[in-house]
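Sample A.
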Amino acid sequence: MIDRPRLAPGRGRRLAAALFACLLAGCAPAPEPQRAKPAMWLVEDDDTRLYLLGTMHALPAATDWDEGAVGKAIAAADELILELSPEQLAAAGAEFQRLAPRNTPLPIDQRLPATALAAYRTLEASGAGQSFGGDALDDWAVMVVMGQRVAQNARLLPSNGVETGLTARFTEAGKPIAGLETAHQQLMLFETLDAATQRALLTRAAAGAGKAVADVDALTAAWSRGDEKALEAMINDDVDAVPAARAAIITERNRRWSLWAKQRMAKPGTVLVAVGAGHLVGADGLPALLTAQGLKVTRVQ
């Protein structure tokens, strides 16, 4: 197990409001435009190269992330692999509308303790102040709409996100783009969590809502400088507190993706694999899993 620095008490609760809620719309605010050097690894053998790039799905304007080794990987790659293909990402909204509603409404004030409820209401009143409609939604779906509000408050633009930029570059070059999952599969990761786990995640997210923007700002700063240990600490501090969520959202997906990567290594070519940065760090991150399978893995940025 890689040693990692511990965060101050409470940081995990604050991160939850953004990290879990932004599976599809990744929250990543920064205090000002900056040049980023996100971490990237290369998995290679005699005739195959897989670049593993950690992404943020939404970014502030004027964040430059596609220079240096990343720019070279984009130019060299024959194809792009994302968590969701562009077609599946476009389908995610409708899939959310289908899966998110509860069978029977349950008031939010019956789900959250007083302190968490107060923070939830403050976030709901922020920005344009539009109601979350949480009474009618499953706990996991309430987290998603909370995360959307955090993103709005932080002035995040998915159009500046890494996946959007990569999709434009590969489409313009006529190179194929595919996904590791469907929108249905991705949202079902939350939908199928047991009730106690969903409630624990929602409570943590609500309790930390007031600090979500600041904490995700720290997450983005770590991503921008390619700080693997800091990313691991921030992400693990949150998900370790809810083991069932960690297993479903990170560990099991990473294992599936590592099997896909090992199989892809049997076919010649150069591939850029771009997934959320949290999937590439720690003992159960993709680089570590592929190394354990005997593949040659090198950090190249």
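Sample B.
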Amino acid sequence: MNKDDSGKTLVLIPARMASTRLPGKPLADICGLPMIVQVAKRAQEADVGRIIVAVDDQRTFDAVVAAGFEVVMTRVDHQSGSDRIFEALTKMDPDGKAEIVINVQGDLPTIDPQTIRAALRPLDNQAVDIATLTVEIEDEAEKTNPNVVKVVGSPLSETRLQALYFTRATAPHGAGPLYHHIGLYAYRRRALERFVSLPPSALEKRESLEQLRALEAGMRIDVEIVKTIPLGVDTPADLEKARRILSAHSI
């Protein structure tokens, strides 16, 4: 852990036991460890701050404790990961020492630790409320796939955009790159506090994209451009792929 970041940065990993496509997902075995523990290990390798796993089930709680990571029990009825991490934040850091919160989804067991670190870079600019990640789309089919969320942003540099919109549509129109949004966020604490206090917005409900709530409220989101998309484990096929990846890397 970097000494400069140990007090001000929290990595919060929400883990929800209920999953229709992959029941018991956080505890799925990957190379001898539960998936949620593999995610915590990737966060540990990123070396950016204190790591806390936010769970809603005693079995997951016990597995995380056994692996030596901090864990907190949260409510089962949260509608989103951001709501779950905010509950965890208020329970585990009630004095407000943490200034930055990184939300790493609990189903990214193969994520490159460098990708987690990349999410912090846009927050070097004090005008930025929330930072997130994207990768340029190379597969033509992804450009028109509504399950691939696109970032529409104004270029700030070769590796960064200021987000103007997020959409499931093919956008923006015309020649030029399209960007696939990666749902990993770094929040300033005050931005997360404000975000979870806001009601769902009109465009958020229309697109089913929570981050639009922040943009509609006038919050600034900057987006770091990275090279690879982390594998999200949502199905048995994804789980087998994650097992192959981690087995090959002997992690």
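B remarks: The radius of gyration is 17 Å. The first strand starts at residue 9 and ends at 15.
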